[in-house]
Amino acid sequence: MPDLVIRPATPEDAAAIAAVHVGSWQAAYAGLLPDEFLSGLSVETREKGWASSLADTSRPHTVLVAGTGEKITGFAVFGPSRDDDAASKTGELSSIYLLPSEWSRGMGRALHEECVRGLSAQFDAATLWVLSTNTRARKFYERAGWVTDGKAKAETISDGAVTLEEVRYRLALG
Predict the structure, then answer these.
(1) pLDDT in tens, 32-55
(2) What angle do CA 3, 6, 7 make, to 5 degrees?
(3) pTM of the full predicted structure?
(4) pLDDT tens digit string along 59-103?
């Protein structure tokens, strides 16, 4: 992607990130999560959350946005691991989301590489969590060298109406 720009997110990017977040979830998780949950996702609600997060200069995670020209069509988040069993030098790739129009065009790979560079500067290893049934994402990460480490978790969201069953992947850095 010759015109691709990846840069740190600013509070002004909240609306665009929220649109990518909702659009990506609705497409990627169709058939994996309940339709009524996915159709009820709100860009406005996500925008408020992203605006608050991006305005917090003490946040430990880095948020990157990607796109061509002025349009943001993807984002990623990385930083210290949030896992209770993580060593101090373990980072986490907490998300990579793209608009479906950008899937399989190189933006995800470019965002991933930028996150791994950022993680490598601070950590010896990194983890990520992925929906156990998300075959597309799992193959993406496996092609990039991530391996499952045997950990799994079930997390409920939407006031307990939706359960996310996730598996953890690990990548040695440096």
Answers:
(1) 999 999 999 999 999 999 999 999
(2) 135
(3) 0.94
(4) 899 999 999 888 999 999 999 999 999 999 999 999 999 999 999
Share of the chain above pLDDT 90, in %: 91
Return d(Cα 40, Cα 37) in angstroms, integer: 5
pLDDT-derived band of residue 1, with 50, 70 and 90 as boundaries?
low
Q: What is the mean pLDDT of the segment spanning 121-136?
A: 96
What phi and psi values does residue 101 have, to the nearest 5 degrees? -65, -15
Amino acid at 119: L
Measured between alpha carbons, how far is 99 from 101 in angstroms, rounded to an integer? Answer: 5
Instruction: Kindly provide the b/e burial profile for residues 126-146, where b requires at least 16 CB atoms within 10 angstroms of the residue's own CB.
Output: bbbbbbbebeebbebbeeeeb
Per DSSP, the three-state class of 46 is helix
Q: How large is the C-alpha radius of gyration of the chain?
A: 16
Q: CA-to-CA distance for 35 and 169, rounded, in angstroms? A: 27
> DSSP states of 88-135 as a string?
TTEEEEEEEEE-GGGTTTTHHHHHHHHHHHHHHTT-SEEEEEEETT-H
